[in-house]
């Protein structure tokens, strides 16, 4: 490290990387009253199209952070169709169509949902660049977050009490010293923190040969004036094109004539060739059209990598620094958001003095198995995309062409779960975690498609709509909450007394909800700050102090 700056910034948590995972971690820490410093090399949110899936679990977290309603207003209009269409060419034959409800239709369904409906915040289709831009501006308004965009972490050293880091403002080369209790790497697959930890990636799902969505790709931000009027099909949100000349995607971003166009590069390390991409765009559309490029972003598809460790000592990894995904299914970003929520409350507990030594260690124990689970799900969906047969006569108005199109449509029509996968979204469980008090019951079967709500400890807290149509999630405290269903004679005072003695923040919530009692299968349930069930029963255990010691990592 170079000579330190005269002044030292003191902060509980230094977050290296200000993408959506880093910003969500900062927002969640701030919600617990924990100050943090975020450094990010780009001076603003990067306005280039990326993925467009904020899944139902991510939106639940954003709801509790107060931004879900605003995020639903970015990007596409509420009435824009969200269908996924597959075509030989955009002016050619439609092979298959996956009907998806619009944003307005989804929210209308939420308003009419039954008392035990499990999706208070449906999956959101909004391009990540718009979401990042909103979060970027939002965190500037929050007290306790020092957001240093246009800065990078040059180095850090760790000692028994914390880390001392050197950060640099890229434009001016000005350096400052930072003293923090913890450093969190949200800085991606090539980031500083993972490198400093000496952590390698583990190939969670070995790649079997070169296939579509497995290798070098390019995402192009393109302006195509009047495109919608030229496509002779009902509108979609996502257009897939498969023919003998090209496989490509075209994503609608908003009401403008700007789109995200995705296709392959020939070899790893190739720079995007605008002329080649232009020809691929024409092959996608079906004939020459006018267009202009805003920019190109190379990337690599087919990853299913999980870090060998999620951290050690005072340094931890979240998001792409901890796992790299193939994009199919949109699992990568959302797994990273769940990492941030899991880690944030544990950091807050330790910093506030009521979390034990095993609490932060449980971050890896809980999240690394989920990374393996979700990367495998993403890889399986990616392989299915590569299995679409592309016959030589696909474009032809002939019996051979019709047969080729039927063969492709037979595969494509089964792709709906790439764009749903509710079991992956809501079904993550922390069975076997040292801070979960198991009750001896069998957890529900893990199914990537179907979510089975259960209050079996370790899983997501089952959602309930309460009598006043408020969400249970809006009533849960920022720390632990004991739910007690109406009619229970269980005395909650011993747990409250034990929590007070240990300085563990604990809220009590009485719920008059017969269907909810049946769903939970118990009179009492202890809910963690990340909306996972820590314990359940019909009466409190005799040793309430021991229960709290376990769930807080002592």
Give a concise summary.
The protein is an alpha+beta fold and 554 residues long. The chain is 30% helix and 24% strand.
The fraction of residues assigned to DSSP E strands is: 15-25%
> What's the overall average pLDDT, rounded?
93
Say which CATH homologous superfamily of the largest domain is assigned. Answer: FAD/NAD(P)-binding domain
Q: Helical element count?
A: 16
Distance between the termini: 36 Å
Let me know the number of strands. Answer: 24
Main pleated sheet: 8 strands, mixed
Low-confidence stretches: none
In CATH, the topology of the largest domain is named FAD/NAD(P)-binding domain
Overall structural domain count = 3
Helix content: 25-40%
CATH class of the largest domain: Alpha Beta
Large-scale geometry: globular
What is the gyration radius calculated from CA atoms? 25 Å
